[in-house]
Amino acid sequence: ANEIVHIHGMWEQIQYWAGRISRKTHHPYVISPHGMIAPWCMKKSNWAKRLYLSLFLEKNINGASAIHYVSNIERELTARTGTGGATIVEPTGLKLAEFRQLPTPGLFRAARPAIGDRQMVLSLGRLNAKKGLDLLIAAFAQANFQNTVLVLAGPDEGGYKAVLESLLSQHNLQDRGLFTGMAYGAQRIAAMVDAQLFALT
After folding, report:
1. To 5 degrees, how large is the angle CA 192–CA 197–CA 200?
2. Cα(36)–Cα(52) distance, rounded to whole angstroms?
3. At the N or C end, where does the chain have fewer CB atoms within 10 A?
4. Residue 45: what pLDDT?
5. Is the entire prediction scored with pTM above 0.85?
6. Which of 147, 145, 121 is nearest to 133 (CA)?
7. Distance in angstroms (rounded) separating the CA atoms of residues 147 and 105
8. With contact defined as beta carbons under 8 Å apart, do 121 and 146 qualify?
9. CB atoms inside a 10 Å sphere around CB 97
10. Which residues pair with 124 in a beta bridge?
């Protein structure tokens, strides 16, 4: 059977070695950068990323059978960084079977007593400056929803949770903002079942 290596992400050593070993063993491979070489991400540690890209990643990119983007916007943004190669645009897949039988309402909040009987505004994703959570907190404060909690479900990246905690404090939302950590598998679906509003900024 034909084997294809699918590499997710760009900046960790394991991704570099996956590409290098694939070339050495003549296995075709596809890279999904997940926005990591778009201009916004390249501004972070720009000189170091440019150097690493030049010394190591360009060989991976040029040797790939294709670069996979989830949208035309991601492809267009990444093109500005000067990276080339064949491209595929294919949205991230969704397993509809996961949603055919939804979790019983109340499971997510029952495991998190701090929510209580309050309504939930749910953000589901990484705690990262790129995600616009500062805007979400400001909007939540301005909306002045009554008896409502803002649930931020996702892993902390680079200590950004501390920034968000400070923003909640500035808006007097300390008791109305809840960090739950990463929601896996059925947990994330249970979170959506229990939420009154899903927010993607």
Report:
1. 85
2. 13
3. N
4. 66
5. no
6. 121
7. 19
8. no
9. 7
10. 153
Residue range 107-152, pLDDT digits in tens: 999 999 999 999 999 999 989 888 899 999 999 999 988 899 999 9
H/E/C letters for each residue in the chain?
CCCCEEEECCCCHHHHHHHHHHHHCCCCEEEECCCCCCHHHHHCCHHHHHHHHHHHHHHHHHHCCEEEECCHHHHHHHHCCCCCCCEEECCCCCCHHHHCCCCCCCHHHHCCCCCCCCEEEEEECCECHHHCHHHHHHHHHHHCCCCEEEEEECCECCCHHHHHHHHHHHCCCCCCEEECCCCCHHHHHHHHHHCCEECCC
* Residue tagged 């500005």 (tokens): 80
